[in-house]
Amino acid sequence: MTQDIADMTPEQCLKQIKIFLLTAAKNINYNTPLNAI
To answer: What DSSP designation does 22 have?
Structure first.
């Protein structure tokens, strides 16, 4: 993340978390065989 969480507004914080979770979900879907989860 480019900004420290302490400097963010709650909205920015939630947005960053959503982006992080979506990215993580995509990485899991594309890079992980189902039997490894």
So the answer is: H
